[in-house]
Write a structure and sequence with these properties.
127 residues, 69% helix, mainly alpha
């Protein structure tokens, strides 16, 4: 399974070998599986991003999630972009998040992130 192939180097202490595998799988739109995605996410959360490229990798990983969890992972991606100081990217992700969140469950969180980035709250942005 592809997820196990990605997970193995991550468990050995470094995800640098796993990222090229994930990138190729992403290009081919292959299913990486929960074990592979969680191993890469765990590696992302271990510390601050060493580079902008690292941040972009994590955001791409978070935004790859589909289904019912998509709005939640989108909110995490927006929060991580805001944390990194990339307000324009965070605001762009919030716009996408609000389109995914059919039930308005993340509106409060989205408003907080938007205000932290210098934007209007989500409710004010729609009016």
């Amino acid at each position: 399974e592809l997820g196990s192939t990605i997970r193995a180097p991550c468990r050995l202490g470094g995800s640098s070998l796993a990222w090229p595998v994930f990138q190729e799988a992403d290009k081919l739109r292959l299913n990486v599986g929960l074990s592979g995605l969680s191993a890469l996410l765990s590696g992302c959360e271990r510390g601050p991003w060493p580079s902008r490229r690292s941040m972009q990798r994590e955001l791409r990983l978070l935004l790859r999630c589909r289904g019912e969890v998509q709005p939640v992972f989108g909110a995490v991606a927006a929060a991580r972009a805001a944390e990194a100081g990339d307000a324009p990217k965070a605001l762009q992700l919030l716009d996408r998040l609000l389109a995914w969140d059919e039930h308005g469950r993340l509106e409060n969180l989205a408003g907080r992130i938007r205000r932290a980035c210098g934007g209007n709250s989500s409710a004010a942005a729609r009016e």
